[in-house]
Structures are given as C-alpha cells and as structure tokens.
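4.2 Preliminary Data

To establish feasibility before requesting continued support, the project team ran the inverse folding procedure on a target of 243 residues. The structure was first converted into the token representation described in Section 3, and no sequence information of any kind was made available to the design step. The complete token record follows.
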C-alpha cells in the first residue's frame, strides 16, 4: 500500500475542487485498491472536498492547523472543525510553512500533539535546504527536525512522515534514487530510535511526476508520495497513484 497525497497549496476554488473530485470519483474504481489517496486542499475548499469524498476511502485534511481547536486566533485553521466535516489527516511543518510563515519546531510539536489527541493523523514534513545538503548536514537536519517536531507526539498513535528536500520542491529537480534511499533509511532508523513504530509510513515529496514515480516507489522505505504541482490535474495525480 502506498499513500498518494495531493498538496494543492493555494490553488483551486471550491468549484474547481468539486470538479476535480467528480472526475476522480469516476476513475477510482479503475485504481489499484491497495493505494491510499489523500487530498490536502486549501482551507476554503475543504468542505467542498468533504462533501464529495466523505463516503469514499479517500482521506482529506488541512494543510496547516493551529495547536488549539478554537479561540482568539484570527486567521488560523481549526483541526477540530476539520474533523467535524470528516477530515482524517492534516499536514504539519511543510517547508513553505517553515520558510515563509516562520513556523518553528516548538510550535510544530504542539500541532502534531494536538492532531493526535483529536484522532487526526499528522503528516509531518521534514527536509533539508540545498545549503544544508551541500554542507553534508542532511541527516543531522532530518534528525533534529524529527526529534524536535515529534517530541510531544504519542508513539502509539498514528503518524505519517513526509521527507521533502526543500531544493526539490516545485523546482523539477527530483532527488536521486541514492539520496532518497539514504534519507528514507535514516528517517526510519531515527523514528525507531525515538520509539515510533518501525512501520510509520515515510512519504517522499519534491517534483514527483508520473514519469519518475514508479522508480521512486521501488526504493525501500518509500511508502508513498506528497505531490504538489502534479496533483492539480486528475490525470497526472492518478497516473502517479497507479504505480
Ligand atoms: P512539488 O511539491 O510536487 O510541486 O514539488 C511538493 C510539495 O510541496 O509537497
């Protein structure tokens, strides 16, 4: 089973989200049942996606949540409200959140904890910048992000990790098979050391496309993908989902 997660970022209107889901629903019966589809629409499109996919096996959720379910937090997204429309998952710590919105490990740790307490599965994102890779610090950075971001997490509750090298996101530069293999093996080792289940799924993200997905999917410890650009069209999303 692979997890095929679509990160729509700040794309699509609710109407476009509904059209995507309608098209997806016509194709689902043809897909290999073994793959778990997941969709992360922008917050304003969540309910549109929920209405279409609630009764299917496709999981969906927010791209970012606050670490409290309600309160005086103008502009934030509520994990609790997402749960009420049927969400099962949420992204935490995507590199765009870290870089553009200055989200720090300490806050990410609270988000992971809150999601797990609510019964939602956090898809916790980690990844090194180009400068960190070039200075041979990749594994050190991944280890730090995992230790800090998961320090309040419950090892017995559900969790997904997404490894996304920052330099591969939206750039068309996919990490090499060796780089992905090494990173996933190390993430698996670190998760075990931190007391998490060795079967915790680890997704790869960063310029995943229909033409590179099957090779990437064959790498040990690659349990699926987090896909940005190629997830915006049903055809390319499903081409990846059928690996
Ligand atoms: P990309 O984005 O597939 O467009 O590189 C991946 C992501 O940001 O999750």
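Position-by-position output of the design step:
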């Amino acid at each position: 089973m692979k997890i095929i997660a679509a990160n729509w970022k700040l794309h699509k209107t609710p109407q476009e989200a509904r059209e995507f889901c309608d098209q997806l629903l016509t194709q689902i019966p043809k897909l290999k049942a073994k793959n778990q589809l997941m969709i992360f629409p922008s917050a304003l499109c969540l309910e549109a996606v929920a209405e279409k996919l609630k009764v299917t096996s496709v999981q969906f959720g927010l791209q970012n949540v606050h670490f409290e379910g309600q309160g005086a937090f103008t502009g934030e997204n509520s994990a609790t409200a997402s749960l009420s429309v049927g969400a099962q998952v949420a992204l935490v710590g995507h590199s765009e959140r870290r870089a553009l919105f200055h989200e720090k490990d300490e806050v990410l740790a609270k988000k992971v904890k809150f999601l797990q307490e609510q019964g939602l599965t956090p898809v916790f994102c980690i990844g090194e910048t180009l400068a960190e890779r070039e200075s041979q610090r990749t594994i050190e950075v991944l280890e730090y992000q995992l230790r800090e971001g998961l320090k309040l997490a419950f090892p017995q509750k559900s969790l997904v990790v997404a490894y996304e090298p920052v330099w591969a996101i939206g750039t068309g530069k996919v990490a090499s098979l060796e780089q992905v293999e090494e990173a996933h093996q190390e993430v698996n080792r670190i998760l075990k050391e931190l007391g998490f289940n060795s079967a915790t799924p680890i997704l790869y993200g960063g310029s995943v496309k229909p033409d590179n997905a099957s090779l990437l999917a064959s790498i040990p410890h690659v349990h699926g993908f987090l896909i940005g650009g190629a997830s915006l069209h049903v055809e390319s999303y499903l081409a990846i989902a059928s690996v």
